[in-house]
Amino acid sequence: MAKWLFKSEPNVWSWDMQVAKGDVGEEWHGVRNYMARNNMRAMQLGDQGFFYHSNIGKEIVGIVEVCALSHPDSTTDDPRWDCVDIRAIRPLARPVTLAEVKADPRLSKMALVTCMRLSVQPVTEEEWQMVCELGGVAP
């Protein structure tokens, strides 16, 4: 199973809103970046990801799971744009801030540090383990 990170502005779509969707989950729509779209096209059912509050908070707050494979984005008629559906699995016991990630030399190559603008990013298994440890949850 691959690991990912999904960025969302909490005033637009927050962790609490994601949790409220329950097991049905929610379409991760509105992504208009080819690399992020291609990341979603590569996802498999059951892949997990971090839910990251960008701009406000700048912290990883929870873990989500892909519950529907890549499909056309319902917010556009443009066939170039796809999305997946994700559902909340659990919150982190303690949010992990961007500042903490940047300060930890073990995470210096994490896409959150090196490709900050990318809204859907891959996470390595090692990075997953470290962020879970920082967030107080079992991987």
3D architecture notes:
The protein has helices at residues 15-20, 34-41, 98-103, 111-114, 125-135; strands at 3-8, 26-27, 48-53, 59-72, 82-97, 120-123. The chain has 139 residues and is α+β, with helices and mostly antiparallel strands. A hairpin with a 5-residue loop joins strand 3 (48-53) and strand 4. The longest helix has 11 residues, at 125-135. The radius of gyration is 14 Å and the shape is globular. Residues 3-134 form the EVE domain. InterPro entries: 5hmC_binding (IPR052181), EVE_domain (IPR002740), PUA-like_sf (IPR015947), THYN1-like_EVE (IPR047197). This is EVE domain-containing protein.
Task: Tell me the strand order in the biggest sheet.
Answer: 2-5-4-3-1-6
- Count every helix, treating DSSP H or I runs of 4 or more residues as helices: 5
Query: Which structural class fits the helix and strand makeup?
Result: alpha+beta
Helix content: 25-40%
N- and C-termini, Cα separation? 13 Å
Largest sheet: 6 strands, mixed
Low-confidence stretches: none
- The radius of gyration is 14 Å
- Report the principal-axis shape: globular
Secondary-structure element pattern, one letter each: EHEHEEEHHEH
Mean pLDDT: 97
Proportion of beta-strand residues: 25-35%
Pfam families: EVE (PF01878)
Protein name: EVE domain-containing protein
Domain EVE: 3-134
Organism: Rhodobacter lacus
